[in-house]
Amino acid sequence: MLLENVLIVDPIDGEYVGTVEFEERIEIIVKTNKSEYKSILMPAFVDPHIHGIMGIDTMTASESDFRKFIEYEAYEGVWYFLPTTVTCKVEGLSKIKLPGDLKLHLEGPFISKKRKGAHNEDYLIAPPYDVEELSKYIDLYDVKLITVAPELDRFFDFAQSCVKKDIRISLGHSDANFEIARKVFENGYNRITHFPNALSPLHHRDLGMVGAGFYLDFTVEIIADGVHSSPEFVDLVYKIKGPERIILVTDSISATGLKDGNYMLGDLPVKVTDGKAHLEDGTIAGSTLRFSQAIKNFRKFTGCSLKELAMVSSYNAAMDLKIKGGRIVEGYPAKFVELNDELNIIKTWNF
Amino acid sequence: MLLENVLIVDPIDGEYVGTVEFEERIEIIVKTNKSEYKSILMPAFVDPHIHGIMGIDTMTASESDFRKFIEYEAYEGVWYFLPTTVTCKVEGLSKIKLPGDLKLHLEGPFISKKRKGAHNEDYLIAPPYDVEELSKYIDLYDVKLITVAPELDRFFDFAQSCVKKDIRISLGHSDANFEIARKVFENGYNRITHFPNALSPLHHRDLGMVGAGFYLDFTVEIIADGVHSSPEFVDLVYKIKGPERIILVTDSISATGLKDGNYMLGDLPVKVTDGKAHLEDGTIAGSTLRFSQAIKNFRKFTGCSLKELAMVSSYNAAMDLKIKGGRIVEGYPAKFVELNDELNIIKTWNF
Description:
The structure is a homodimer.
Chain A: E1 2-10, E2 14-22, E3 26-31, E4 39-43, E5 45-50, E6 52-53, E7 56-57, H1 63-75, E8 78-83, E9 104-107, H2 131-134, E10 143-148, H3 155-164, E11 168-171, H4 178-186, E12 191-192, H5 208-215, E13 219-223, H6 231-241, E14 246-249, E15 261-265, E16 268-273, E17 276-278, H7 291-302, H8 306-320, E18 336-339, E19 345-349
Parallel strand pairs in A: 1-4, 5-8, 9-10, 10-11, 12-13, 13-14
Antiparallel strand pairs in A: 1-2, 2-3, 4-18, 6-7, 15-16, 16-17, 18-19
Helix pairs in contact in A: 4-5, 6-7
């Protein structure tokens, strides 16, 4: 396959016009000396935090639903994503049957009651002593990422045993103070789930998890829907932390791509109005953000370069999960999104 | 006068060993090629926000008290400072009689009830239409700086008439939302009083005054006592905004330099315990910070260079108030602080 005179956007090498020859992998890239191009070629996107889309919910999806999930994500330009659970009885995790190469992000039940967000408080528990305990309920091979509140009992034991199994830890739904945040950061736990939502806020006498996210070199998930945080907040994160430390996620739920109305997130009823998902008490309950929109929003909010957009939409997340991807260089998987100048997706390649 | 082989610290030219010849002004500076020096020479400090020291309170000081005030500040290495009022009946301002060259910082009464801090709510009012109205109560020539909450009625009219009289506006004790903060910033009001205290907090869906302080190019006063904000918060401000946008202030009260006990701040009783000043309800009521300690704290909290310390302790404040000072270059006033390597003051020159 050959894509000629496209604006190649690589998160490391930057933007240049060239021609890409590829099959499964990128075989040859030839840089041309032109400034005109027919379309923009970006590494396909990675979404490590997505609960559902188009009526499909990770908690209830059948194998064929998961296959549709993959298909819908392909339309969004996402080639790799982690279907994400919500808090349920830990036994309930055993119902989830993933097909093929999909792996899970477990969000809860090991999170803070005070910062539970749209998670059912009845099922929240401290993490078990080690990850093997979890294997009673779920095939550990299916789990790639777990969001945990670091202030809970047994955090360090559990987190360490996750790391040994190549399961990545993300800190989230946490009421930790700055002292705890610094301690876990210094122990290598450097990822934060949907920053700054459901985290102890920045206070000037205790930076909390939000302040820690700014102050220390954490990598943070950002939901760039303009609802979870204001455009200026997203821009502030970009200005302070830089594009190297941001991972765009949708946190989207089954209502995504569907009309306003009543939906479920796990076993909690959610009402979607003007595309905004809330529990009955007004708590934000995930998003209806599409990844194809997230990249436009992020660029609009921050004025970032395309190179930086490739970092936050693909490369950083791939690196974070140790997946080979997110670049357009020879030898890498040929997973591309072709876009026009308005960042509308023209075609996704090789999904 | 001659100071030989001192480490000259200039906020622009940086640090180098040299010899300074001066009388009232700096006459000649000769750079030597040595690396050893006998002491550190910094521009003497500027404190634009200080209520009192050693039993003296701006609100009740006699002319001879103000002269002692100047003397005490000289020990602290401060050659220029603004005695600062607290909120009182606006008529009460007419009691303040300044000697010589001293000028005032009016903190209140034009501040927010919600963010009043240690100001008496009974006297809080919106600003008058113009600054001439104030001249009924106080000689405008005596006023250099006014802290105002920008969300109050008539802010723009008042602020504009202040600027015309060369009175600087600082935004403070404010509950303004981000929209207001942005609007006033865009209109040139770019200074914030004792950031982040007594300001609408950073929220991720409305940045508030604290978020605006981080996000926009405001210059902010910082009380580096480790009480008004944590060392990490001060370091966060330094990392985000850089030393160019920070002005160290003490916000210190009459109890400064005296023992723990009961004091007054304006007409509010203040209790000082372990050097921390609080109202009965626990609200922080100014500090007992000495400027000579503020510079040590800031360096410890941030690890800044001496050049940067000269910016935040003198040059920035001088520039902000349009005073010639804060530098060690030929032609500038010879106002110096001589320090040892632990930043203890050895001698203040030419006060």
